[in-house]
């Protein structure tokens, strides 16, 4: 393909069709600058544009490639088939490339998600095996600490059933159920503590602040303040299921944020 002959052919054919460079560019979905470069012999159109270019200028693909008009139509079908195959191959490669990009994106996403979950799991407070329920809570017996009225908590909900750990401190027999019951039945008190002391939502990661401030509320209705103080008492027991190191780390995290 001769640069100069190719460019002159396009110019002549375009003008015969009374088309401007912008008109031709619009028909081919390219810029008029691209058309200008073709006509000046500075560049060639992509092979996929040869067929639509030939149709727009009403000249054959063979003539485009030769850079001159001819009466001979030989090899036209062969060239068109070659262009068709090129388009199909380009489309296939593009589809494969997009598929690979999608797969890579999914892998990156799930790796990132896995890292986030791993970090979350590592920082998630875990109940200490040394602080789980191991004995009944009966005041003034054995190594039991304090004189907690466990019947009061059970009468409110069986989920607040209390036992003692090996050190004699009161713990909930099922701390997960106790915490879930607190979230479900004492939202008014939780909201009061959250609002008055500007805390984040109550979770197992930040319950220490609610435990401390629940007994210090001064706003809200009498019922809301009663709930807030009960929340503090529940969390005081809930805390005994964790090791001191875990509580210290949680308090440091709360203070840092």
Walkthrough of the structure:
This protein has 257 residues and is mainly α. It has 2 domains: 72 residues, lambda repressor-like DNA-binding domains (434 Repressor (Amino-terminal Domain)); 126 residues, no CATH class. It contains 12 helices and 2 strands, in the order αααααααββααααα. A two-stranded antiparallel sheet has the order 1-2. Strand 1 and strand 2 form a beta hairpin. Helix 2 packs across helix 3, helix 8 packs antiparallel against helix 11 and helix 9 packs across helix 11. The protein starts with a helix and ends with a helix. The mean pLDDT is 86.
Write the topology of this structure.
Blueprint (H helix, E strand, L loop, with lengths): L2 H14 L4 H8 L3 H8 L10 H8 L3 H6 L9 H48 L26 H7 L5 E3 L5 E3 L2 H11 L1 H11 L9 H7 L8 H17 L5 H13 L1
Antiparallel strand pairs: 1-2
Helix pairs in contact: 2-3, 8-11, 9-11, 10-11
Q: What's this model, at a glance?
A:
By secondary structure, the protein is mainly alpha-helical. It is 61% helix and 2% strand. It folds into two domains: 3-74, Orthogonal Bundle (434 Repressor (Amino-terminal Domain)), CATH 1.10.260; 131-256, no CATH class.
Characteristics:
257 residues; mainly alpha; 434 Repressor (Amino-terminal Domain)
User: SSE order in H/E notation?
Assistant: HHHHHHHEEHHHHH
Overall pLDDT metric: 86
Q: Please summarize the sheet with the most strands.
A: 2 strands, antiparallel
How far apart lie the N and C ends? 69 Å
Number of helices: 12
Instruction: Give the tally of β-strands.
Output: 2
Main-sheet strand order equals: 1-2
Overall structural class, as computed from helix and strand content, comes to mainly alpha
List the uncertain runs: none
Q: What's the overall geometry?
A: rod-shaped
Tell me the radius of gyration. Answer: 39 Å
Relative strand content: under 5%
Give the proportion of residues in helices: 55-70%
What's the number of structural domains? 2
